[in-house]
Write a structure and sequence with these properties.
heterodimer, A: about 350 residues, two-stranded antiparallel sheet, two-stranded antiparallel ribbon, 11 helices, B: about 280 residues, mainly alpha, MetI-like fold, 2 domains, about 5% strand
Chain lengths: ~350, ~280
């Protein structure tokens, strides 16, 4: 397990995430989430040269938004919300589906065609659209009255619960199948014959093999949540609520309650053709975060494969020695057979 | 035959009911409270309304229109985009996987290392870049590649954009499956018999790879669907998913979801049957 920390790719991904998150927390403690504002820009002679929105060339590193607030600080402040929410939701998804999946994978033979078919139904509806319909009533501010029906914390908790719930069925089926295929392995048969109870086999032989898979699924879910947040942001549903002021003349205005990244994108996406950097910079940060999770995932997979590879190689060595001794290829046939079962297909 | 009906029929019915149940899900929440009664009410009223489907209407502005058959123009547009993009993605993935497998080993490793970088790109980023690109091109040459604000239905660019990310996914899956296939003993046998490498890949390996690809293709289709949604939204395309978004009633949501589900299900089942026929194996799930 510790070997993964030595993997440079895993390390880089994790460090980027930690830096963004830690920097964001530090900024809010040390500077109290202060956002500097430059609305009008003068040159050395005191002549006005430009007004907000100012491009990154005038106000490094990322320029300002249409009201002159610096984007860099907004990104830093938003990081802890976006990353924190994603990790929280992914953790809850995994925890719930882990419990449900392991139980159903252990105590039922195979998930019936009916229930797996019902869960399959989720694959035919874009998940962002479904979450949008459920969340809209709670998160969108009532434009006419300018009030929310619920407090910020209620809304935030509700959103976390919904974002968790929409993925739990599919992940549960995945983990359940995974557990089930572990139970089918021949070494479990051996443990059973030796008299292990179902619970002790579960803890001693099943779960240790499940952990690496769980880590991979966790990281995949993390990416999934980031993309879902991005989509919801584009649909103008921001985390913790959307301030909505209808304005028939200048166009409706949507603002985020928290300064989380998807809010930065959703409220400014219309500026893409003219002031490209305003929505593009938060999008690029999403790319950065997803990329670092992906690179960590890749590093983790490499480590796991390498460990498995070492084991397999040493096994093979042993087997050739055995083979020389007994001069029979019995083991090989057996292994092919076993591999064949692992495949999800059977010959007719 | 009856086995086939059993396999696909049960799955179809289960998914059908699943979509119905999901479609009524927004009714489950009254604000933040769980409202089981409201959910059941919404479910029954949706089903009743769908039985009398010819009375359903939708609004554009202040005008009311009959939902059927108008909805089919939205549906076919979305389906044409989705299916052509998936087809292109499949072929592109296959072609590049073939080329990659023919390359020497060190190159293969570099490509595999680099590939996941591109997979990290979220669809919103790809769309934003395309939009910026179109505008940049317009400013330089004053040729408008796509008229994003128009009411006409455009095909070429959306299909291309939609096929980018699924192509990468297909490519990666195919590389992975072909690599697994290459370790098998029958490949070694074929090699010793002097079968050429490209015959090996196309005739032998690819046949067996079709079925494993099927297991992954489900999630790729789902991914493409959510891509399609965001693209319809950003490019203002008159597709069915944007139609669902614009007409947020329970009946239209459920009806559109069902209409989307049926063709996709049929396509996936056909592919499964084809893959099973070709590789002479049967999928268990």
């Amino acid at each position: 397990m510790l070997a993964v920390i030595k993997n440079p790719m895993f390390l880089i991904g994790m460090i980027v995430l930690l830096l963004l998150f830690g920097g964001s927390v530090y900024y809010s403690i040390a500077y109290d989430d202060h956002i500097p504002q430059t609305f009008l820009l003068y040159n050395e002679d005191g002549n006005l040269i430009d007004k907000a929105p100012l491009p990154p060339t005038h106000v490094p590193p990322f320029g300002t938004d249409q009201l002159g607030f610096h984007l860099f600080q907004q990104i830093i402040i938003g990081a802890k919300y976006t990353i924190g929410i994603a990790i929280l939701v992914a953790c809850m998804r995994i925890a719930l589906s882990f419990v449900a999946g392991v139980i159903s994978g252990t105590f039922t033979r195979k998930i019936s065609r009916v229930s797996s078919g019902m869960v399959d139904a989720m694959q035919y509806i874009p998940i962002s659209l479904l979450s949008y319909f459920i969340l809209r009533g709670v998160l969108m501010e009532n434009g006419m009255e300018g009030t929310f029906q619920y407090t910020f914390y209620e809304r935030a908790i509700f959103e976390v619960i919904i974002l968790t719930a929409v993925a739990v069925p599919t992940t549960t089926v995945l983990i359940s199948n995974e557990t089930n295929s572990l139970w089918q392995k021949s070494y479990i048969e051996g443990a059973r014959i030796l008299g292990g109870s179902k619970i002790s086999i579960l803890f001693r032989h099943i779960l240790p093999h499940l952990w690496p898979r769980m880590t991979i699924i966790f990281l995949q879910q993390l990416i999934n949540v980031f993309i879902l947040l991005l989509h919801l942001g584009l649909l103008k549903l921001f985390f913790g609520g959307t301030l909505f002021s209808p304005d028939p003349e200048l166009g409706d205005e949507y603002r985020s309650v928290s300064s989380e990244w998807s809010g930065l994108i959703g409220s400014t996406y219309e500026y893409l053709p003219y002031n490209t950097w305003i929505p593009l910079i938060p999008i690029l940060f999403f790319v950065l975060v997803i990329f670092s999770v992906n690179i960590a995932l890749e590093g983790y997979k490499q480590t796991i494969n390498r460990q498995a590879g070492i084991k397999r190689r040493s096994k093979q060595k042993k087997r050739t020695i055995e083979k020389d001794a007994s001069a029979s290829s019995f083991h090989f046939i057996n292994e092919e057979d076993y591999k064949f079962q692992e495949r999800k297909a059977v010959n007719r | 035959m009856s086995r086939g009906i059993n396999r696909f029929g049960v799955k179809f019915l289960a998914s059908f009911i699943g979509v119905l149940l999901l479609g009524a899900l927004p009714g489950l929440f009254d604000g933040m409270k769980l409202d089981i009664g409201g959910y059941v009410d919404r479910l029954t009223s949706t089903v009743q309304n769908l039985i009398h489907y010819d009375e359903l209407t939708f609004r554009i502005g202040n005008n009311q229109y009959a939902l059927f058959p108008e909805i089919f123009t939205y549906l076919t547009y979305s389906l044409i985009l989705l299916f052509s993009a998936l087809l292109i993605a499949f072929l592109v993935g296959l072609g590049s996987a073939y080329v990659t497998v023919m390359l020497p080993r060190p190159f293969q490793r570099i490509i595999k290392r680099g590939l996941f970088l591109f997979e990290s790109l979220p669809d919103v980023f790809v769309l934003a870049v395309v939009q910026i690109g179109v505008i940049w091109f317009y400013k330089k040459t004053s040729i408008l590649l796509v008229d994003i604000a128009s009411f006409e239905r455009i095909y070429a660019l959306p299909i291309l954009v939609l096929s980018i990310l699924p192509s990468l996914l297909f490519y990666r899956i195919m590389l992975h499956v072909l690599e697994e296939e290459a370790d098998k003993p029958y490949i070694e046998l074929a090699k010793t018999k002097g079968v050429t490498r490209s015959a090996l890949v196309f005739i032998h390996m690819f046949r067996n790879a079709l079925l494993p690809i099927y297991f992954h293709s489900k999630s790729i289709v789902w991914f493409a669907l959510s891509n399609l949604f965001i693209m319809e939204f950003v490019f203002n395309l008159n597709g069915i998913i944007r139609f669902m978004y614009r007409n947020p009633t329970a009946e239209i949501f459920t009806a559109s979801a069902l209409l989307l589900f049926v063709p996709i299900f049929i396509m996936l089942s056909l592919y499964q049957l084809l893959a099973e026929r070709v590789s002479k194996a049967e999928a268990l799930s």
